[in-house]
Amino acid sequence: MLNLAMVMIVSKPNKNRNRNTAMKLKSPEMKSMFGGQPGGGFFDLSLLKPGDTSKADIVLLGIPSATPYTSVGSYCADAPDAIRAAFGWPGVLNHHDFDIDGYLIPEGIKAVDWGNLAYSETDFAENRASIKSHINQILKMSAIPLVMGGDDSIPIPVLEAYREHEPITILQLDAHIDWRDEVSGETMGLSSNMRRASEMGWVENIIQVGARGIGSARPQDRQDAIDWGVQFFPMREVARNGIHAIIEAIPENANLYIALDIDVMDPAVVPSVIGPAPGGFGYWQMLEILEAVATRAKIVGFNLAELMPSADVGGRGALVAARIVAMVLGLVARQKSE
Ligand SMILES: [Mn+2]
Predict the structure, then answer these.
(1) pTM
(2) CATH architecture type of domain 39-337
(3) pLDDT of residue 338
(4) CA 99 to ligand 1 centroid distance, Å
């Protein structure tokens, strides 16, 4: 009774005050303070069209959808734009980046943003063909593609594009191993990407980091991966032993493709995913991995998948995703300038 009375006494005036301030409160953004990003691409890079033929060292590409499961549709289609909107304003690339200790993109390196690929909600084979041909165009320009997905079906057609190029090693960062052969008859969906990759003759090694919890794999899926030669670093092991063994597992000077499902991050850091799993990476741990990887191997491609803006909390997940893409951009730019 006493508690209830206290609640009633304090809650009534507070309620009114909250309502009044809520009406007056505005929510300004940093990028508004410094000039917004009208028409700008990721981190205010030049925003071009997919397939633009101007020479670049690094091409960012938004791929909203590839082969969505029809049960859920293209639930990550808004992610590329959410990632672009999360950070950046005119001139920010002229600032000192404290996470990489210098300009994010060293002078002399040209990175561009191709915007988003068009996609169909019904013709998934057409989506895959378009993705493959655009990535192939980037590779033929001797540029490095950095892909902003989209659900995790996107790596399948992206990896297809490496067929005519040097053999690759894949570093998958994901709470889930994605070795299902099919789901409801769909073999090209988000739960099958590493199995499909394993069937590509130009994929030499697969290293999978971050698997955790339950719901990532059936025992036979995991066994098939081990029989193929996958080196697993489940999250429990990484939490206990650190990242050194992961880096050692990557062949030196390998052509490394990084397939990152943002659910590899802890849900407290990135809440905006369809399958949150407790116990994931923090921001600094992810940076340590990416930086160490960049000293070991040549990054030939990258994708970030599975950010679901509709489940985001105050844009927090999109902001972390944007910083991860930015760090990969910075690391690849440094490799290009060497
Ligand atoms: Mn996943």
Answers:
(1) 0.91
(2) 3-Layer(aba) Sandwich (3.40)
(3) 86
(4) 26
